[in-house]
Amino acid sequence: MINLSSPLTIKNKFIVFGGGFSGDYFAKLIRKLGCTALTSSRTINNDPNSFIFNSDKNLLPEDSIFNGVTHILSCIPPDKNGKDPVLKSLKNKINNTSLKWVGYLSTTGVYGNTYGDWVSEEDEPNPLQERSQRRLNCEKEWIHSNLPIQIFRLPGIYGPGRSTLEAIKTKKIKVIHKDNQVFSRIHVADIANAIIYLIQNKDKLDFHQIINIADDEPCSQIEVIRYGYKLLGLKMPKKILFEKAKKDLSPIAKSFWLENRRVSNQLLCKKLGYKLIYKNYQLGLNNCFINFK
Hints:
CATH topology: Rossmann fold
Shape: globular
Structural class: alpha/beta
Largest sheet: 7 strands, parallel
Radius of gyration: 19 Å
Number of strands: 13
Order of helices and strands: EHEEEHEEHEEHEEHEHEHHEHH
CATH superfamily: NAD(P)-binding Rossmann-like Domain
Strand content: 15-25%
Low-confidence stretches: 1-5
Distance between the termini: 24 Å
CATH class: Alpha Beta
C-alpha cells in the first residue's frame, strides 16, 4: 500500500488540522513511515499527538507546535462565512515556516450538477450548494496563500467504522431509488495512500494543484446498499422512490440527491500513476466488513 522506502523520514513533521475520520487515518499512516504527525482537536484530550485549535473560540496552537514542521494537511471545513479557519487564524505563522508541502481536503461538490456526466479537474467549478460555494472560496484562499499547496477534491468518504454497514446496523439507512442517479465515492485508505504517494513522488511527477481522489466506478446508492445487506446476510427492505421519500429527508440529505455526477480519477490514476487499493465499492465494503463489529 505505502512505499516504506519513501523519502519521508523521521526528519519530517506533519501537522494535520482537523483530526476527524480522514485526518486521523492519514496521521496514523504517516507515523508508520517514521514521521511525526500532530493532529488538531477543538477540545483537550489525552492524545499526546494532539493539540488544541478552535478558531471559533480563538484557541490557537502553541508556537512550539510549528517547530520543525515540514508538511501541513488541512481537513477543516469552511466557517459559516465561507472563510478558511486555518488561514484566517494562522496564515502569517504558517508562512513563516519552511514548508515542503501543504494539502487541503476539498469536495467534488464544487463541480455542481452535471446530470450524470463525468467531471475532471479541467472542468470549471459550478457549485450548486452553499456549502460547496464556501469550499470553493477556501480553495481560492489556499491557492492565493503563496504556500506549496495541493487541493484534493473528494466525493463521498467511507471506510471501516463509517460505511453503509454501520448505517444498516443502526437502522439509519433509507433505501431510496432515483432513476439514473449516480454517486462517486472513495475509501479513506485511498485518500491517505494517494496523498502519501504524491508527496513521496512529487519530485518525479508533474505538479498538479488540484486533484480528484475517487474510485473507478460511480454507481447508484441502491447498488451499494444491496451489497451491504448481502454481506450482512440480511434482507434489504423495499426501495422507496425519491419523489416519495424526499418529504421526510433533512435539507442536507435532500441536497445530495439534487446533484448527479461521475468524478474522473484519470489524472491521479492514469497520468500520475497511483494504483487504487479499493477501486470499487465491493472491494471497499469487503474491507469494512472484515473490520465490522
